[in-house]
Amino acid sequence: MPTWMLWLLTGAILWFLYKKFKSGKNAMFQNLGNDAFSEKMKNADHVVLDVRTDAEYASGHLPKAKLINVMDASFSGKVDALDKSKTYLVYCRSGSRSRGACEIMASRGFQVFNLDNGIMGWNGPVER
To answer: For residues 54 and 50, what is the distance between their CA atoms, to the nearest angstrom?
Structure first.
């Protein structure tokens, strides 16, 4: 399957997830740049959440990041199992998938922050 078709399919799935899980409430999250995201990562009570694929995660991820693939059918159940008393710092490759994940999580009552340009724009440390 050509790469452009995969991206088109990814976008369609994210749009579906966004529409399916969006609540009637004004679920909000905040997009953060590198500096603000990095500052929030210093808080030991905040959870860094990578919503990319296993392969993307293995190629490099933010320190102490937990992986929950937003494209996986089990994403919804895994999110429901998370601790709502925690704050989640969410990122993906470019910030697109993580925005969709943040919408879903915020609509379910989580406090979430999105890394605006994803790991592609990240200028901090990366673990492999």
So the answer is: 10
Is residue 125 left, alpha or beta, with left meaning phi > 0 and alpha meaning psi from -120 to 50? beta
| Averaged pLDDT, 10-39 | 75
Q: Are 72 and 96 in contact (CB under 8 A)?
A: no
Nearest to 67 by CA among 77, 56, 76: 56
Provide the pLDDT for residue 13.
78
Gap between the Cα atoms of 15 and 42, Å rounded: 32
Measured between alpha carbons, how far is 50 from 66 in angstroms, rounded to an integer?
Answer: 6
* Inter-residue contact 103 to 21 (CB < 8 Å): yes
The arithmetic mean of pLDDT across residues 75-88, rounded, is 96
